[in-house]
Amino acid sequence: MSNKIFQLENVSFAYPMSEPLLTNCSLTIEAGQRVCILGANGCGKSTLLKILAGLLTPQSGGFQAFGQPVKSAALKKEAAKAYHRRVGYIFQDPDVQLFCSSVREELAFGPLQTGIGAEEALQRVELLAKELDIEKLLDKPPFHLSGGEKKKVAIGSALILEPEVLILDEPTNDLDPRSQTWLLKLLQSLGRAGKTLIFATHDLDLVPHVADRAILFDEEHNIAADMAVKDLLADVELLRSVNLVDEHYHTHPWDFE
Amino acid sequence: MHKNSMPACGSGFLARTLTRFAQLFENELYCERYSSNNKLLQSLDPRVKVVVILAFMVFANFVTSLAILEAVGIVAFFYACASGLPKADYLRRTWMYLPVIMFIFSLPGGMSFFVKGEPMIWLVPAGALGSNDGVYMTAAGMAMAARIALRTGDSLSFAFLLLMTTKWYGITGALRRMHLPEVFVSVLNMAYRYIFLIAEVGTSMMQARHIRTVGRIKTSSDRKYMSNMAGQLFIRIHYMSEEIYGAMVLRGYDGSVTTADVMKTDAADWLFLLLNAVIIMILTLGGYIF
Known about the structure:
By secondary structure, chain A is an alpha/beta fold. Chain A contains ten helices and ten strands. Helix content of chain A is about 35%, strand content about 25%.
């Protein structure tokens, strides 16, 4: 049986009346891989993640997920629910992901929408809240939470569906160092549990601790490199050529420990 | 709003706008603080509370007796005290502004031109200024203005009680259980949720302008800035609304919302419901007597 989760062949995407954000992008992501997407601002990282999540449809090229061709326009009702139960997505800005009137409702939203019974959904909420240490927040409205708490709830709202694949867009944005460490440990434990992790980030310190594979985009929206994280971060010249780092960037041996 | 929480942005248009935004947040925090108390109304099932409060509001808008309208106001005040709401603040927020304004605006309707009756306050004595009968406020007209003010105050008091003693998710949950269309509750919920975000973005934009402002700004410039800001906010919110919709779809949203009912009605709720039914019956009977 194929291990391939996502397969993109010559995928291109552009918003109407705009420059292309992805050009002839081909890649394959296998189950259990921990992949980071790197690149300068505006290179197409978030667009790629949204295509993988089924939110955007490529204008050309082939996109397969779990061995089946995907067209998000055709992802209707039950098919869409089934897809989104398998693929969780965490937005860069947690505010867009938190739209319910309490954290409890927020966490229960996904399970209830995907047909899980109310009793089981609420049980899952209690368990997950304990795991993420957000029990005290359950009855609070999401807009009263701090940035770190919002991020935790946003992550919880995706994790509660127990997805096979977790996609994160700039997961460490707006997080204080303590919350970043919490997130790092969470991602590591999810990786160990066999989840497929795909995340876009500018936080190069995070990358070697979570990902084993890196996909680098250049400013022309093409894939400039697809290699092991350690090799990519060591190739400062390559990182500079795509305008991701400046001449002062360097790594240490302990970054990879 | 407390003086010490005023944004330090001087006076004038910018300061006023920032103050309004700050008040919005402060109001919300205020609600959150009191709805967390474990007093009379806070400990009740929100559904029971919504039913009782709606019943009082409807009753107040049908009853004509001034004494009964006052009694309804006293009931609301009693519930405010029993729920631990600060009395002075409760009276200021419910009775000091809107009912007074409603009374003043209703007064012209109570003049002898419109409502016949016993003269109560003479504005133009009979025979003066070429008027044979004179112009005066009639007793019936004054009673009408008082009735409008009391109805406003009563409705406001009960609405305030509901908002101050119930967490927002309790209110939306209760509305759902009362079989209001889900789309209505969802839109209400999203509007409530995102108004704070919009206010936050608006505050940041206003502050960004304030710290780059030296001296006085012309009113025309202020107007131009406001229209630009409205446009900017619209663009941002439009982008955000697409993202929010995407976030909902990613968690299984297909146009309808499924919710879990976590509310429980116990003996105290039924007792409260019964007690208030009795109060309304007594007040109804009182309406025939007074």
